[in-house]
Amino acid sequence: MQSLIYATPESLGISSKALLNMMKRLGSLEYVNSIMLLRHGRVALEKWYAPYERNQPHQIFSVSKTFTSCAVGLAQSEGRLRITDKLISFFPEYDDCITDPKMRDVTLRDLLTMRSGHAECANKYLFGTADYVRSFLASPLEMAPGSFFVYNSAASYMLAAVVRKVTGENVREYLMPRLFEPLGITPGPWECCPQGTNLGGWGLYLTTESIARFAQLLLQNGVWEGKALLPADYLAEASREQADTSHCEIADWQQGYGYHFWRSTHGFRGDGASGQYALVIGEWDMAVAVTSCLPEMERVLEVIWAELLPGISDGPLPEDPAAQQELQDFLAQAALPVIAGDLEKRHANVRFEFQPNEAGIRACEVAFSATDCTLTFQTPRGTEQIRAGFGHYETSLVQLADQYPHWAAACAAWQSDGSLRISSCILDGIYRDIWTICFDDPDEPVKHEGLCGCFRPLIPALKKA
After folding, report:
1. How far apart are CA 426 and CA 405, in angstroms?
2. Which of 75, 159, 228, 362 has a CA positioned 20 to 30 A from the CA of residue 93?
3. Mean of the pLDDT values across residues 15-43?
4. Using CA atoms, how far apart are residues 244 and 257, in angstroms rounded to an integer?
5. Residue 94: strand, helix, or coil
């Protein structure tokens, strides 16, 4: 894999002072996990906020859609499909399950532009069923296909199913020799439906650098090291406004939608729940990758537009060693904060038994050492632990109610009300957990609050037995 080239911000026409202001504001959000910024094809800035790490693939949620779109464009260039084709033409064996005649008019282009005719995301018809294709085709349509934009991850799933049908490969495997390998990307897993098809609209894991390489490819009109990896005509259409989104509430979501790409106030992007971004800012020849776990993901864009763009010049700027050093010093110490509170107090080990619950969590033991505490849960899979450091992060492999296990980092502190508070974040994605142990609570001594839980199974209330 060819390494990316690094350069000073000023040599690329970016003010280090502007980058510092941007990073300070991003650091005040709860939380940005990582960022990589390229201009003129060179890295001007990168940062992983500990405990997040460079080489850890991260959930990208709906940024996955942009890769599904690329697979559709490639399949079209190879003569395997046309985006004007009717969806049902790929699944004639399901024709008798259609309940709404309008479904027979849905085209691949309607799916790419989120204008399938559904009034809301059709995932509700898919989840909990064994056959997502059948469930989608059997779903009702409230509007004429192609008439109105409604964000619909199930439409992306159907595109992934079409790619699998015409190529015999899942999107991930189809893209390996065509996109991922030439870009030097080793993708993480891509979650699948019960029949083994990549979910299409979400479920892919990539490192921040991989997202940045992809964004740079888009900025270069699909060309990488002199070779066209994506069809230029398709990419030009995909990144232009194809569907009106002016009815959306937030400015950067009102700029229009292409073929699974959002138009932005500046440029276009792929984005995913809680602040995953592949930003392409053509007017400044800039590509930006961001991973986050933010309830209000639009804050990332607001900060970049307000703090970074005014600090960009058409040509190189005079080198500013003092500002560059200040930026590097800030980046070196910036990390996710630990919980504030008493770090010295300890408690006798205690075990809580729970009433039957949907997650099957039977008990939790709270134990202490000189530097950390451990929550040991009894689950249907056996024993699972969350280890939390007092004033620092400790890592554990944990699953609980999640579909898959995740490495998680956790810290702990005692609160003024006598409770023990533990903050945990998975290291390969957005999920965050707050555990509050109230030792004297007779009903619910172990309380859980989940944050940034897109598509995540809920942990039920753990009532004391």
Report:
1. 9
2. 75
3. 97
4. 7
5. helix
Instruction: Calculate mean pLDDT across residues 429-458.
Output: 95
Among residues 273, 274, 296, 303, the alpha carbon closest in space to that of 288 is found at 303
For the chain, domain boundaries:
5-330, 350-451
| Stated length of the chain | 465
Token pair in block for residue 375:
């929550």
- Other CB atoms closer than 10 Å to residue 308's CB: what's the count? 26
| Residue 461: predicted pLDDT | 96
Encoded tokens for 348: 């006798």
Quick: pLDDT tens for 192-211. Answer: 999 999 999 999 999 999 99
Segment (H or E) for 355: none
Other CB atoms within 10 A of residue 241 CB = 15
DSSP 326: H
Which among 424, 417, 393, 413 has a CA at the least distance from the CA of 342?
413
Instruction: Give, in order, the Cα–Cα distances in Å from 298 to each of 26, 49, 268, 293.
Output: 12, 19, 14, 12
DSSP class of 93: G
C-alpha to C-alpha distance for 372 and 343, rounded to whole angstroms = 9
Please give the pLDDT value at position 453: 87
Q: 5-330 in CATH: which number?
A: 3.40.710.10
Q: 206 pairs with which residues across the strands?
A: 58
Q: Which two tokens stand for residue 281?
A: 């800012």
Cα separation, 188 vs 194, in Å, equals: 19
Please say if the pLDDT value at position 280 is more than 90.
yes
**Do strands 382-390 and 406-414 pair parallel, antiparallel, or not at all (unpaired)?**
parallel
DSSP symbol at 338: P
Q: Are 48 and 207 contacting, i.e. CB atoms less than 8 angstroms apart?
A: no
Per DSSP, helices labelled H in 311-392 are 321-333
DSSP string, 255-281: S-B-SS-EE-SSSEEEEETTTEEEEEE
Q: Distance between CA 274 and CA 63 in Å, rounded?
A: 11
Rg (CA), the chain: 24
Section 265-287 average pLDDT:
98
- CA 68/CA 57 separation, integer angstroms: 18
> Angle of helix 64-77 relative to helix 153-167, nearest 10 degrees?
40
Answer yes or no: are the C-beta atoms of 213 and 46 closer than 8 Å. no
Structure tokens at 71: 């697979």
Per-residue pLDDT at 1: 60
Identify the residue whose tokens are 């000189």: 370
Instruction: List the alpha helices (DSSP H) in 311-357.
Output: 321-333
The answer to whether residues 222 and 64 touch, using CB atoms and an 8 Å cutoff, is no
- Average per-residue pLDDT for the chain: 97
